[in-house]
Amino acid sequence: MARGKHMAMMVLALATAACAPSAEKGTGGVVNETDTVAAMPEVEAANVAVDNGMTGTATIAANASADATANAAAEADDAKMAAAAADAAKKAEEAAKKKAEEEKAKIVVAAVVAPPPATFGRCAVCHDATKGGPNKLGPNLYGIYGKSAGVHAGFGYSDALKGAGLKWDDATLDKWMENPRALVPGNMMSFPGLKDPAKRQEIIAYLKSLK
After folding, report:
1. What are the pLDDT digits (tens) for 72-90?
2. Max alpha carbon distance in the chain (Å)?
């Protein structure tokens, strides 16, 4: 805009000069028609210069605006890409942390669940003791400690055991393994009993760890 104003002032100056009295033009200092016609090309040239200057200024302004818009769009794209990368990194970190916790839990469980004592081999003939394991001749024993007798899903208990109202705690398990028929007459377990108290305690301790 400053450039256009400057050019307009130049036009005004040229026009004034063209129309001003001159000692070399006309008679008595009066500008005649011939002098005015001679000055017109200069005025027109000045007008064209002004128009060109204003057009150039508008073009520069338009280019600057376009550049600013393009820069703003590029910065917005960069911000979106940075946000997406940060989000992906956060999700990856959370997934890695979750996996590490799961692996740690597996290690802890493996450390807590001790291998069965040799004495449990007599029980394993009829019972599975793994989590989610099947029923065999007897019910699965995983997690049995602390539960009521005769309630494991999918196994057909005798009416005598189901109606005994027993709970598998230390004292009941000890009496059961010593002589199951004496504890609950009429039950279907054919085990004759384990007479060694120390071996019974080994089995009870193992059953307590299965949880």
Report:
1. 888 888 888 889 999 899 9
2. 154
